[in-house]
Write a structure and sequence with these properties.
This protein has 539 residues and is of the alpha/beta class. The chain folds into two domains: 372 residues, no CATH class; 120 residues. Helix content is 59%, strand content 8%. It has 24 helices and seven strands. The strands form two sheets. A five-stranded mixed beta sheet has the order 4-3-5-7-6. The N and C termini lie far apart (77 Å).
């Protein structure tokens, strides 16, 4: 008991950071609709199943890859959860929030091992109050939550190996990094950056630590962790790399701006939650929490930016004050981050979204934490109170931005991707009778599949009508698609469309073929905005 009390006392700052992160996240969980990419992992669990690759063992098939770069790790984690619990927002989001909590704890332990307790306190506190880190974990549409968990767990174990020589930590560390690659092959960005940084910054220690036996352990354990990804690529001519390794340097400035917007916390306003001008019927705060949150927002001047960018620049200026292992750790983080982001910047169709940029986290917090901790030691007695004051200001700025997201979420609701009308649509479709349900836009099918446990006969409704030219087979398919009154179609209203014009083209094609659209329901969100239309075609 005394040992447990001593451990808890020593880890109290880490526990406090974890509780703060959990408390900040849990208030968000029920208030946005399930986004399509947030639900995509369930494509391997519910009908109609949509997986890129699976293997047959006996009489069963086991899904391994959802896409060429996206594995089924999350699907396998949720399979038993969905058997016990419902497929609602709490079941979907709470486990990922808990994964984020575990990541805060691992980050504290990693910094403590590398740079001491002072740096660990600063780093975990900054990460726990980072708005976009919190929101990307809670709603995990990247997905990113397991990426952070596996990567941080892996490098913590490898750091333990370098300090203790434990082969067990070496093996488990590489296995977790392999698991992160199976979860999402984009892990190669950060793993590549960390690998190069390790060789460059820690070259003597790195090469001195490795023997042939240790190299074998590392390679074998990584391959075991990433085995489904390896099997898929061996059997598909390395499709992960052929299909995703294309280069485009045209948008590097835009990706740099997105990285800065992610760092200072404002990148998801208008994308995750609607702005005031987008919401004609905002909700007034009614509960004690929403009223207090709105009041804090008004008193703070409706803040949309934290101070992390300024803290990072200051950390760079103070970095020369660090010495020894602390200085090497800062250089390691900076080089790993630069190499990882460079890969994002030149990869086509990647790196331009928050869920890509956030994969660099928590390296920015690592730089700030170690640099500030080293600088505070130079101030001797004044160091701790000065560092505490600076950390308090940074944390407050982060929490105020998080509060602003919460205020706008409760007042304006989710943006197009995150409309809570999906829940009303799901409820309506439970009573609708149809032999096939066609989704005539993106952002409808995967979340409906999950919410209805795969009981809806969902079909893609954008093919082949979205083609520039139709052949005879396409016309025959469309004739069967629109020709039956027991077929239901779902589209977004004009203001919420993703594939603009596709639904209009289908309706026109049907009209030319002698059919008219019969709207059966218009589904609004909680702010009264019409979001979905459910209809049939009739002669």
């Amino acid at each position: 008991m005394n040992r447990l009390a001593a451990i808890l006392k020593y880890r109290l700052p880490a526990l406090a950071a974890c509780l703060l992160f959990f408390g900040s996240g849990v208030v968000f969980l029920p208030h946005l609709g399930l986004q399509n990419d947030e639900a995509i992992f369930a494509d391997a669990l519910f009908e109609p199943k949509a997986v890129t690759y699976s293997i047959r063992l006996g009489h069963s098939r086991f899904p391994l890859m959802l896409m060429s770069y996206l594995g089924t790790v999350k699907s396998w984690i949720y399979r038993p959860l969905f058997r016990v619990f419902d497929t609602g927002v709490w079941t979907v989001r709470l486990p990922m929030l808990l994964a984020g909590v575990a990541t805060i704890w691992l980050f504290y332990r990693f910094l403590e091992r590398l740079a001491g307790r002072r740096a660990a306190i600063v780093g975990s506190a900054l990460l726990a109050t980072d708005s976009l880190y919190l929101l990307t974990i809670c709603f995990d549409w990247g997905p990113v939550a397991l990426q952070h968990l596996f990567t941080l767990g892996g490098i913590l174990l490898l750091a333990g190996f370098y300090q203790t020589g434990s082969h067990r930590r070496l093996g488990w560390g590489w296995a977790l990094l392999g698991l992160s690659a199976w979860d999402k092959a984009l892990a190669v960005w950060l793993l590549g950056g960390m690998g190069v940084a390790t060789v460059v910054i820690l070259n003597r220690r790195f090469f001195a630590a490795f023997t042939l036996r240790r190299v074998a352990i590392s390679v074998i354990c990584f391959l075991v962790g990433a085995l489904p990804l390896v099997i898929y690529n061996v059997n598909n001519h390395f499709a992960t790399f052929r299909g995703n390794a294309s280069w485009d340097t045209s948008d590097i400035p835009g990706k740099a701006r997105l990285l800065a917007a992610t760092a200072d916390g404002h990148a998801l306003f208008g994308w995750l939650v609607d702005e005031d001008w987008q919401t004609p019927n905002p909700h007034e705060p009614r509960s004690a929490l929403t009223m207090a949150s709105a009041r804090i927002s008004a008193l703070a001047g409706y803040p949309r930016h934290n101070l992390m960018l300024y803290a990072f620049l200051l950390a760079l200026l103070l970095a020369p004050l660090a010495r020894g292992d602390a200085a090497r750790a800062i250089l390691w983080a900076l080089l790993a981050m630069a190499i990882a982001w460079a890969q994002m910047a030149i990869t086509a169709n990647a790196g331009g979204s928050v869920h890509h940029a956030i994969l660099l986290w928590p390296l920015p917090e690592m730089v700030v934490a170690i640099s500030f901790a080293a600088a505070s030691r130079r101030l001797k007695r004044a160091g701790v109170p000065v560092l505490a004051a600076v950390l308090t200001v940074l944390m407050a700025a982060g929490l105020l931005v998080t509060n602003e997201y919460y205020v706008r979420m409760r007042r304006n609701g989710g943006a197009i991707n995150w409309t809570d009308a999906i829940f009303r649509l799901s409820t309506y479709m439970k009573t609708a009778r149809a032999s096939n349900v066609f989704s005539v836009d993106w952002g409808i099918m995967d979340n409906l599949r999950m919410l209805n446990h795969g009981t809806l006969p969902l079909r893609v409704g954008t093919d082949p009508i979205s083609k520039p030219e139709l052949n005879d087979a396409d016309r025959e398919f469309l004739a069967q698609m629109i020709g039956r009154p027991d077929h239901i179609f779902i589209n977004h209203t004009k203001d919420f469309e993703f594939f603009s014009g596709v639904n209009d083209r289908l309706v026109k094609y049907a009209r030319d073929a002698g059919y008219s659209r019969q709207v059966e329901a218009v589904i609004p969100d909680s702010n009264g905005r019409p979001v979905y239309e459910v209809y049939r075609f009739v002669r």
